[in-house]
Amino acid sequence: MSTPIRFYYQGAVRVVSNAAPTQTILQHLREDLHCTGTKEGCAEGDCGACTVVIASLHDGQLEMKAVNSCIQLTPTLDGKALFSVEDLQQDNGALHPVQQAMVECHGSQCGFCTPGFVMSLWGMYLDQDGKKPTRCQVDDALSGNLCRCTGYRPIIDAAMRMGELAPVAFDRAALAAQLAPLQRTAGATYSAGGQSFHAPRSLDELVALRAAQPSATLLAGSTDVGLWVTKQMRALGDIIYLGHVAALKDVTEAHGMIEIGAGVTLEDAYRAVCRHYPGQLSEMWQRFASLPIRNAGTLGGNVANGSPIGDSMPWLIALGSQVVLRSAAGERTLALEDLYLGYQKKDMLPGEFVQAVRVPLPQQDVRFRTYKLAKRFDQDISAVCAAFAFRFDGDVVSEARIAFGGMAATPKRGTATEALLTGQPWSEANLMAAMAMLAQDYAPLSDMRASGSYRMKAAQNLLRRFWFETRTDAPLASAAVNAFAMRA
After folding, report:
1. CB within 8 Å of 70: residues ≥ 6 apart
2. What is the percent of the chain with per-residue pLDDT over 90, rounded to a whole number?
């Protein structure tokens, strides 16, 4: 029996009974609710024209996050609240400070991208409780919004101006009260057109569903699967949604590890890890996709996808992270690098799914760095992503862990280079030998992002940069480390 989708929008509970399980929130807004302020620009979560804010309850706390509606599926709204640009006008007809600031600062040109910018700014406005943001906060909030008229300066001006206008309060308690009756205590299945969307609430329900339907599509943040629908026009079959499984959203610390549930968003996962690695991972956090993508996508999904150009896997592998797999047979833990067998091939049995990722806490004798090279600073796929974690005994490398993305068919360790360096002084001569040895570990391909020769040269030079920042035989070392920490 199909359970209808219920969500809160424009002051009322909406009930959806016959939409396709793969219908996007953007399609539902425009085609079913006839709210056409939200626009489709790219249909892949890149341009931000479709940005909306979604509110949900987690452990009784209200969370409100800007996401890309073009790749989020309508059934994921169950039990949540949806806000689009139509919601911002005040009861007396006045514009919201975000909108008023855009008008005063001439932040809209052709206007197509404007609703998305407004919603991203509104999300930041809520986070800041109406206070004036910093320029860094503005840049991060707008990292997922593209203006084809190149009108960023007046939009940034508007972001700074909105905090100077008379504030408009948002009643979070009232919204939480509206959402409370919509919360389900047990799993539900929504069906339409011969396709089912399963939404378990507990880990046991998820395990049973996965065992019964090992070929069903697992859906977490939809930042990858959404493109299968909008760009590849793939039929997903039955779907198992992880977004309501509370046990997958926990972040805990024990036995020298940070355990991050597979349902924890990228934004929350990076926040948790960066508390322990602020100088080493803060820039990667800022540069990983855009804020709306990080608000929706999950670290567990990133790991399960295993893209060779994914930015999380190199640093996770370099640190010696583990992945916890779960099935009806129980738990199984692997070193993360052992999960990847080949391009889009993983050591996962039928019925298994990623339950958590375990990241080692910092160790005093390990020096760790990660670097990303791309054509743009924000919201761009890496040409090369590098991570190094070396353990030292004085000036001697006692353990070397080197991992790269974009250099092979999978995220991959440089085992030959690691062996060459282990037990050797961290000297310039050994560095040069290691740079040459990288050619034995990797044979990068040429594509639209970079040539193979560029990738190899870049990888070698990133290892050299790591040497400059971690060598101990010259004053340059401490200066380089301090400069890196200031940038991050």
Report:
1. 24, 25, 26, 40, 41, 42, 43, 44, 45, 50, 226, 230
2. 94
User: Which domains does the chain show, CATH number per domain?
Assistant: 5-86+174-241 (3.10.20.30), 97-167 (1.10.150.120), 249-360 (3.30.465.10), 366-487 (3.30.390.50)
Do the beta carbons of residue 107 and residue 141 sit within 8 Å? Answer: no
Total residue count of the chain as it appears in this document: 488
- Looking at residue 474, what is its pLDDT? 53
CA–CA dist 62, 176 (Å, integer): 6
66's tokens: 């800007």
d(CA 356, CA 411): 18
Tokens of 14: 């909406």
Strand order in 239-241's β-sheet?
188-192, 195-199, 239-241, 217-219
Please report, rounded to a whole number, the percentage of residues in the chain having pLDDT higher than 70: 97
The closest alpha carbon to 383, from 451, 464, 291, 470, belongs to 451
d(CA 396, CA 69): 52
What is the b/e burial string over 117-130, where b = at least 16 CB atoms within 10 angstroms of the residue's CB? bbbbbbbbbbeeeb
